[in-house]
Amino acid sequence: MTQPNVGDLNDERRHVKLHHEHVSNVSSTEYPGVYPGEDHSWSLQHFKEKLVVKVQRLSEKSIEFDVVGVDASIANALRRILMAEVPSIAIENVYVWNNTSVIHDEVFAHRLGLIPLAVDPRLLNKKVQDETPTDKDTVVFKLNVTCKHRPKAAAARGEIDPEKLYINSNGK
To answer: pLDDT per residue over 68-120, tens digit each?
Structure first.
């Protein structure tokens, strides 16, 4: 049996696999002693030779690229660094006046904070802590949604579909 070329991109052991219910092969096996007779010691030269970054799509506001030839943990570290360093706008303060939903105010506020906002951060000044907000450092949103029973929805006995029973059941 022929041994695979160390670091060969066609080596199946290097491919992260996506299955219906899970992801496999995310752990690195490229360290000394894993496979007898193969040298997996790290070298910068080898890393440079095997690293491939291919830009798939580029626009003024986004870039989509593939990183090939690195362990999944390195690609994930790169992803997390980029997410932390790219300026973005998020909801910070939520004021709730009348929440009659089953979701607690704190959970609702947290979920709102997870929504990515299409606001260019360069258009706002950085907000200074403990300073009164101004229109130059703040964006204000108002959310006013009411979920009500649909007229004549009760006539359909046994109906359990929220879309048929309620108006605005899923924010539509």
So the answer is: 888 778 888 999 998 888 888 888 889 988 888 878 999 999 999 998 888 88
Instruction: Give CA–CA dist 116/66, Å, rounded.
Output: 23
Residue with tokens 């910070």: 92
d(CA 61, CA 34): 43
> Which of 28, 27, 30 minimizes the C-alpha distance to 5?
30
Residue of 137, 97, 129, 94 lying closest to 115 (CA atoms): 94
Rounded Cα–Cα distance for residues 18 and 4 (Å): 22
pLDDT tens-digit readout, 10-59 = 777 777 888 888 888 777 766 677 778 877 777 889 888 888 999 999 99
HSE (side-chain half, CA atoms, 13 Å) at 87:
9
Strand pairing partners for 18? 23
Please choose, from the candidates 62, 75, 99, 64, the residue with its C-alpha nearest in 3D space to the C-alpha of residue 26.
75
